[in-house]
Amino acid sequence: MIKELKTLIAVAREGTFAAAGNKIGLTQAAVSAQIQRLEAELGFEIFDRKGRSAHLNRMGHQILLQAQELLRLYDNLGASPAGLAPSVLVNIGAIASVQRSFLPDALARFHQQCPQCRTRVLPGVSMELINLVDAGEIDMAAIIRPPFSLQSDLRWMTLALEPYRLIVPSALPGDDWAELLGSQPFIRYDRASFGGRQVDRFLRKMHFALHEVSELDELEAIIKLVGNGVGVALVPQTATHHKWPEGVRALDLAEHTFHRDVGLVHRPRQSLTEPAGILVQLIAEQARANPV
């Protein structure tokens, strides 16, 4: 069961069975078999499978948290003296771009201030993570602001307003973003994500006729496709993209610029543990120190 739980965590992090297999040294078929065994043991499915991607469903997120804790206990068997008080655990969900930008620095400061505490970062997309906060299964989540009102007992704190840019291959001539968007193959930010819905609303508002060639959720993958000359894309300029990768250049949308609102959703401060409240403050401070 331990190896199946490790495989579960790898799939949750990597997003596909194939990518998880590459990460942990298994074939895609072996990963699939392990997940099927785990689901058979549990008696229910833990992934929603869509094409090659695999996203945790609601029960899957709960199992993931328990699996991470079980593996932590397994790894620490015999390592702690008996009788020690358990440390405080703070659970935080985070979209990929936040995990690559200011979150690690905020966590480093947190562990310096609260050495007795532990943190667990749960990867996921915004919709999944906001549901986990609402259900009380995690303390907070750094996500894209949803296009609907939050529950009355949830709080929102904006961390960054990321401007959308049209990114194009460096070798592609021209600086008229509208002309390039209308004439070049288009790589779409997945409409299932909050950020992708923003792009979709913008395109419909501007009445662009596009030649779409691909649609995906991972921003880094979109940027690589543009760098490889596959097409152009509308993506937010995150804190990690002050300088775009070689092979890619970004065009400002001028007065048509729109923004991705990335922030922290959590319950009221008085309902958070003291360590969770400290982490909320440190994340806010770190985001301000790393503006887009």
Automatic annotation (TrEMBL):
Pfam families documented for this protein: HTH_1, LysR_substrate
CDD domains attached to this UniProt entry: PBP2_LTTR_like_2
Residue ranges of the TM segments: none
Sorted UniProt keywords: DNA-binding, Transcription, Transcription regulation
GO cellular component, one term: cytosol
The HTH lysR-type domain, residue ranges: 1-57
Gene3D superfamilies recorded: Periplasmic binding protein-like II, Winged helix-like DNA-binding domain superfamily/Winged helix DNA-binding domain
UniProt-recorded name of the protein: Putative Transcription factor, LysR family
Organism: Pseudomonas brassicacearum (strain NFM421)
